[in-house]
Amino acid sequence: MRLNDLRPAAGSNKSRKRVGRGPGSGHGKTSGKGHKGQHARSGGGKRAGFEGGQMPLYRRIPKRGFMPYGGKTEYAVVNLKALASFDAGSVVDPEGLVKAGLVKNGQRGLVKILGGGDVEHALTVKAHAVSAAARQKIEARGGRIEVLS
Question: Which residue from 1, 13, 29, 99 lies 20 to 30 Å from 133 (Cα-Cα)?
Answer without folding.
Answer: 99
